[in-house]
Amino acid sequence: MILQPQSIEQLQEELTRATSIDGLNLSALDQLIDHVPEDMTATAQAGMSLAAFQEQLAVGGQWLPVDPPHPENLSMGSLLAGNASGPRRLGFGTVRDWLIGMTFILPDGRLIRNGGKVVKNVAGFDLCRLMIGSHGTLGIIVEATLKLLPLPESEILLQKECNSLDEAAELLEQILASDLQPCVLDLYRINGQSLSIAAGFSGATADVEAQTSAARGMGLETETTLSYDGTFRSETHHTESTAPSELITALKTLGDTEFVARAASGVIYSRALQEKNPQARTSETPSPLQTRIKNLFDPEGKLPSL
Fold this sequence. Notes:
Layout: E1 2-3, H1 8-17, E2 23-24, E3 32-36, E4 41-45, H2 50-59, E5 62-63, H3 76-82, H4 89-92, E6 99-105, E7 111-115, H5 128-131, E8 140-147, E9 149-150, E10 154-162, H6 165-177, E11 184-189, E12 195-203, H7 205-217, E13 222-223, H8 227-233, E14 238-241, H9 247-252, E15 259-262, E16 267-270, H10 273-276, H11 288-297
Parallel strand pairs: 1-2
Antiparallel strand pairs: 3-4, 4-8, 5-9, 6-7, 6-8, 10-12, 10-13, 11-12, 11-15, 14-16, 15-16
């Protein structure tokens, strides 16, 4: 059964009658419900695109500091259910760090509201974070309330090409051991280009200028953009992770395979990672705890399996 509700109430009714869900389209639930600039919070429906959400927040000089690729095609519900992120996760974390409240519907049609609309609301069991990254296996997210930040006064991304992974490792160590506080620190090789390190700095203009000056002294001299991430991840790729200390070792197993890596977190996006680096962490059979939670939330198996 494919669900395409025009309202939350209709979705509740359809879920109650459904025996299995083969598809879901929440594009009709696309409203910005609330934006309180003085509290730096906003509430949006799950069908609203991340790009539209950011555009409306920008009118008030604010943003949600998450940056997965192609936000115009990513709904707020998919952002949360997939825990999607981008290069700025080093400096700003993931959407899990910015969520303060959520409304979702269980497979039996019950509407659950958890969390609140103020940053200091911490009462009750935190079901919100259980839903983040659940990929729609536990319930259907319909609304979310998130903390915001002021738009940065300035942001600069610098790049340096490296001749080898060993050279890149030395520069990464130098950056991480310094007083620099990059919001982006990526290592990548795409489209036949040279191996490159990208470091981004964001915030008050004076601070960004000071940090970029220090970064240029380390050889990061070429200004660039984050287009490499969206370009690479728009095509088929594998996502794996390893300990940051093992990142270079993991990348060496890839040979000439193209990749984009979050250098400080160990997340690697690669064209052929699973085949070339079997030691990297891959998807496994659900744990007994995951299975127990799935059975608790979806005992009839209406939603996608784990």
